[in-house]
Design brief:
It contains 14 helices and three strands.
Length: 270
């Protein structure tokens, strides 16, 4: 996550003042979100401020931006509470299937007299936004449970058991669109999984590690192994020792003075 010193000055000023509740500033946070996606950056506080702004002003909510916030949290902090924090700020459109924000008024509406009542506008047509959010939630749960094989399978292949073919198609399109907007997603997730593997193993079968990392060719594993100091052998991969994957025997000594024992026995006989 970006440190405060690395955050653009205008964004820092915005999210640290009451201006973060001003709906007219939503485009600044949305532009910053797009910058994070394309530049492989992550700023949780700014993204939560955007979701909070949507929560207070449902009419300006951008479904695509909301999904992008979830996608970034899944990529950069899959084992932290970031995704849950973002999920808790989603509008009803994603959580319980409420109506999406109304479509923007046409140019003819802008020319109407100010005193004329605003015409009723039908809610925007949903295109699998709720189901896509639920898919991202399912992916987050798989990562939290360290079910890495299932994560990559669901991320790449979707839900083959889904009875709603059209909705599944919309979800797949949405996930693919998010992946194109954040090309570093796969690499970020692999780095997080690699750290978890290093905490648990000193040696792991090569096919198992490839399945955990979701690598599609040998060069990806070789590159990651070079970066992290792994030794790739014919059948397995040796991982460096660390405090987590090196068990150590611990002997705990407890000294009880005779006076303490006497008082304890005296109380038990009382």
């Amino acid at each position: 996550m970006l440190a405060q010193s690395d955050r653009p000055a205008h964004i820092q000023t915005l999210i640290s003042s009451v201006d973060r509740y001003n709906p007219s500033n939503v485009h600044l946070l949305e532009d910053y979100l797009q910058s994070q996606l394309s530049n492989d950056q992550y700023d949780l506080l700014a993204n939560l401020a955007l979701l909070k702004l949507y929560q207070f002003n449902p009419a300006i909510c951008s479904p695509s931006a909301s999904l992008s916030v979830l996608f970034l949290a899944l990529a950069h902090a899959p084992f932290s509470p970031d995704f849950s924090l973002a999920w808790s700020l989603l509008s009803d459109s994603f959580v319980v299937g409420g109506s999406l924000p109304s479509a923007a008024p046409s140019s003819d509406d802008d020319e109407d007299d100010e005193d004329a009542p605003a015409p009723a506008r039908a809610p925007a047509e949903p295109h699998g936004e709720k189901e896509t959010a639920e898919r991202l939630l399912a992916l987050s749960k798989l990562m939290q449970a360290r079910k890495f094989r299932d994560f990559w399978r669901l991320y790449r292949e979707g839900d083959s058991d889904s009875a709603q073919g059209q909705k599944e198609h919309e979800v797949r399109e949405a996930i693919d669109s998010l992946a194109r907007s954040a090309p570093a997603f796969d690499g970020r997730v692999r780095e997080s999984i690699a750290r978890e593997v290093e905490r648990s193993f000193r040696s792991i079968a090569k096919p198992t590690l490839e399945a955990f990392l979701g690598t599609t060719d040998a060069s990806q594993l070789e590159q990651l192994a070079k970066q992290r100091g792994w030794t790739v052998r014919e059948r397995d991969v040796q991982l460096p020792q660390n405090d987590s994957n090196t068990p150590k025997a611990v002997v705990t000594h407890e000294r009880i003075e005779i006076e303490q024992l006497a008082r304890l026995l005296g109380r038990s006989q009382a």
